[in-house]
Amino acid sequence: MQEILYIEVPTADTVGVRIWLQQEWKPDLGQIINTPDGIRLQFSQETSKHPQEISESELSIFVWSVQRTTYLKVFRWGSKRVPSEKRILQQLVTNIRNRFPQQYPELPEIDLSKQSIFEALDPYYPKTVHFFQKMPQGEYDLKRVYWWEKRWRESVRHPQQPKQVVFKAQENVETRHGLSPDYDLIYIGGALGAIHAAVMAKLGYRVLLVERLSFGRMNREWNISRSELQGLLDLGLLTPDECESIIAREYVDGFNKFFDGNLPLHLKAEILHTPTVLNVALASDRWLSLCGEKLRQAGGEIWDETEFIRADIDSEKVTVQLVHLPTREPKQASGRLLIDAMGTASPIAWQLNGKRTFESVCPTVGAVLEGIEPQVWDSNYGDVLNSHGDISRGRQLIWELFPAQGKELTIYLFHYHQVHPDNPGSLLEMYEDFFTILPEYRRCDLEKLTWKKPTFGYIPGHFSVGSRDRAVAFDRLLAIGDAASLQSPLIFTGFGSLVRNLDRLTTLLDTALKHNLLSAENLNQIRAYQSNVAVTWLFSKGMMVPTGTTLPPQRINAMLNNFFGLLADAPPDVAETFIKDRTSWLMFNQLALKAAWKNPALLLWIWEMAGSRDMLRWLGSYWDFTLDALKNWLLSGWFPKWLQHSQPWLEKNHPALWLRLLNLKYSLNPKSI
């Protein structure tokens, strides 16, 4: 037998596909014999008289279901081509694509004044409704899932007319000589915003934190490594005892393995072990609560259940208009600087960047749960990245599993996704997948699991060509975290990126506030852009199925196995360096050349998936990366010491230049050459 065709049929109705093959499909040649999972297509006159006999001039066509979609394969029984084989396969693919086209479901319109969220969504997402009803605050959380998806879709589909929320106030005498601002810093967004707000409050700044939800409630869990946590200790935000208190679990090793059942032998890969990557699970509620305590102890304030409406900026301050959601009472506060930490749903980010706000996204769903048997999964280990099937309905689904507190596990399902108005990406569709295919990934009875809380969100990415490719600041306004979308386009970890850049962000912001360098030009220096991170966006682009495009089902798994196989074969520090955004120019080029040598079709695949325009844009990123490597080689040996020696006179006499040079120092890394 020889496999001659493998395709995905993008529908969960596998039975319907089988019935279509058996009853409706009319091949130009051959006689159909039904089988339990498909058909046999016979061409020989002799065997047609005896259908139970199988000759070499016969095709076997069958379908199966995995990941809530349908796959189809065609096998030839003999070693020689059957008559008109190519024409028959082309007819089959054309007919099946026409009968079962790729569809991108819309979000249903609902009216919660007449029914509950459970009643409204049950006809569309029955499994999602069923299991959210088992969670302690399931109704509240499901409303948040629906709200987030609705807001995301609206933002993607109307990027050129974003709602204006930032206004330049008219200057007058009262404005210029009015009362001083209430605060030095106003943070909008209480997740990543709370961490940095606590740091700045401890430095003596007057800080206000505004959060739309009840403060401390997260819809994602956070994982990090010990070495990255050290940054929080170095900044003085945490004591060693406090650091230990927020660690829910620390596992001994993490696995990275992608499905390779349909790949040739040379593209299969060993398991990549990453024992020091994302191996520390934080108790996010406890961690945020601790940040809130430290913020208040330092004199800061938290206004939760309060929604941002607009910001008015003048030469002296920024004034924010807010609404307290439980009472609908309007509120107002003024500050020297506004920090946007609202994440992917930030209306400020959409206003500043318009249609180029985000170019990629990871729709992510999951849950914190208990009950998976220890013989199924040993909670001393994490599953950092895993796929158990090929492309499913235009997405390569990827799992993450992290041990959490006690017997809890945090499990995520996500995919890399092109932001497209016809296909923005759906959280609710992903949740229906999650609750359907979780037992395929890790054997379990969903009804016997204890569902603690959902974890979900849109994690954005931006394909940066250079350090000024994206606006992260306005006069007296700065975006951080996911709102700035400057995390790794490959790893998509906004929390890890923020922690890794926390010292840089804090020092630069402290300098800007001390010298009142709060114009957009100066604040744009305070960004976490890294050319060695930006250059990896082509890799993430190669893991997205472009909207309206059909790829071979195994394509993305082949690319993932190709690259992660190289990391698995390399020394352990290579994988850690790459995943933690510390890739050097030499390492990147060595890995790229090895990947192309192992699979010469790789560049052609990426070109097909990314397109000529993005390939040319990537060359700009690569050139920027190369120039930065040269700059590191020329400056890293002497510039940091010279800058430290020059600080007393340089900062005093030329503060704006000092800020710019300080930013340059942080961008230097001797290991990035």
Identify the notable features of this structure and list them briefly:
673 residues; alpha+beta; nine-stranded mixed β-sheet; eight-stranded mixed β-sheet; 24 helices
Written description of the protein model:
This protein is of the alpha+beta class and 673 residues long. The strands form four sheets. Strands 6, 7, 8, 14, 15, 16, 17, 24 and 25 form a nine-stranded mixed beta sheet that branches. Strands 11, 12, 18, 19, 20, 21, 22 and 23 form an eight-stranded mixed beta sheet that branches. A hairpin with a 4-residue loop joins strand 15 and strand 16. The radius of gyration is 27 Å and the shape is globular.
Which residues sit in consecutive blocks of at least 5 with pLDDT less than 50? none
Calculate the terminal CA-CA distance, rounded to whole Å: 51 Å
Structural class: alpha+beta
- What is the approximate shape? globular
Beta-strand percent range? 15-25%
Mean pLDDT: 88
Oligomeric assembly: single chain
How many beta-strand segments?
Answer: 25
Biggest sheet details: 9 strands, mixed
Helix content: 25-40%
Total of DSSP H or I helical runs spanning 4+ residues: 24
Radius of gyration computed on alpha carbons: 27 Å
